[in-house]
Each structure stands twice: as structure tokens, then as C-alpha cells.
Automatic annotation (TrEMBL):
GO terms for molecular function: 5'-nucleotidase activity. GO terms for biological process: deoxyribonucleotide catabolic process. Coiled coil: none annotated. Belongs to the 5'(3')-deoxyribonucleotidase family. This is Nucleotidase. It comes from bacterium (Candidatus Gribaldobacteria) CG_4_10_14_0_8_um_filter_33_9. SUPFAM superfamilies: HAD-like. It holds the Pfam family NT5C. The active site is at residues 6, 8.
Length: 199
């Protein structure tokens, strides 16, 4: 099968690098739970609205758009192990990210550094995730942002193994249509959904 995955928030723990930066630069003591909204500017880091805006812009500049910071991101627990099982079971692994396309080489380098198997990586910074899902004829796709799943569903309504929302603090209060999408808590559940047994 053709399996698709988002990168940040699904494979790469970008939230921890962002919150570590916030805590260090602003003498705060947050966890990743501070990100209650996918959009950085909509989160409450302090009781000062102007400072919250400054923090959001700072995180974008110093973490999200910073190659050195992106290389420091760690994969989530069990990502490599589960993806290796999927690869050994004969599945194709495609990664579709909304990262800036200028980070393509860096993203490949990060995958190799962390020994994460992949077949192809696609940059969809202009919002064409759904179109890519259809072109790649994906059977399964995981993201941490519900709007990306809606985009996938718009372009392709039949998903053999489903469209999955990985539970993260920034999507915990978001309604998702259970007739279209499934929520997952961890990577072990991916094995169950794909149907690989005795692992």
C-alpha cells in the first residue's frame, strides 16, 4: 500500500523544540500543552497579548525558519521502529510536509541522520497536500492538522486504510467527523490500523 505521513507533529517533535526555545528566551516554564491552537499567534504564552504576538513571531523566525533548529528536532517515540516494520511489510512510505520548499535538502538530511526510512518526501508549502494524496494514490494518511485531512478528503474520498488525525494538544478541542477521519494517540496504533500482526 501507499502510506502517507505529515512530518512536523507526526514524525518530528517540533513542538518540544519550540517550547524549549520559548522557555529559555522568555524565562517561562511551559510544556507542549501550551500549544492549544495550530496557529502560533492564537496561543496564550503569557497574560500580555503583545508579548504573545512577539513570542509567536520569534518562534517562527528562530525555530520554524531556522535550519539549525530544525536539525535539532527529535523523532517521536517509536517512529523509526514502526516505519521500519511498515517498510519491511512491503509498504511505500511517502512524506508530505507544509515546510518551505527551500528546506527540502535539510529535511532529507534530517531523515537520514535519524535513520528514518522513506521512499519520497514532498514539500506542499502552498497547500496542495490533497492533490498530492490523489496523485500518489495514497491508501492511508496521517496529519496533526485537521484542515490538511479535509483537503485530502476533498481530492480523494475513498481511503483504503483511512485518514488519521494524530492527537496533539493543538487539535484536542477540534471537532472531526468520525465518518471521515480517525483519531490516534500513538504510533503502535498505526500497525493495528494497517493490519500488521505478530510484531
Amino acid at each position: 500500500m501507499n502510506l502517507g505521513f505529515d512530518i512536523d507533529g507526526v514524525v518530528a517533535d517540533l513542538a518540544t523544540v519550540m517550547v524549549d526555545h520559548i522557555n529559555k528566551e522568555y524565562s517561562l516554564n511551559h510544556t507542549s500543552d501550551v500549544f492549544q491552537n495550530y496557529y502560533l499567534i492564537n496561543n496564550k504564552y503569557t497574560n500580555n497579548d503583545k508579548l504573545n504576538l512577539k513570542i509567536a513571531h520569534d518562534v517562527k523566525e528562530k525555530v520554524i525558519d531556522n535550519p539549525e533548529a530544525l536539525m535539532k528536532i527529535k523523532p517521536y517515540d517509536n517512529v523509526r521502529k514502526i516505519l521500519l516494520i511498515l517498510r519491511k511489510s512491503g509498504h511505500q512510505l511517502f512524506f508530505i510536509t507544509a515546510r518551505n520548499s527551500s528546506f527540502y535538502d535539510l529535511t532529507i538530511k534530517w531523515f537520514r541522520k535519524n535513520k528514518i526510512p522513506f521512499d519520497k518526501i514532498f514539500m506542499a508549502e502552498n497547500g496542495e497536500k490533497g492533490l498530492l494524496g490523489r496523485v500518489l494514490n495514497l491508501d492511508f494518511y496521517i496529519d496533526d492538522f485537521h484542515e490538511h485531512l479535509e483537503d485530502m478528503y476533498r481530492y480523494k474520498k475513498r481511503w483504503h486504510k483511512g485518514l488519521i488525525l494524530f492527537n496533539r494538544p493543538w487539535n484536542s478541542n477540534v471537532y472531526v467527523d468520525a465518518n471521515k477521519f480517525t483519531r490516534l494517540d500513538n504510533w503502535e496504533e498505526v500497525i493495528r490500523i494497517i493490519g500488521i500482526k505478530n510484531r
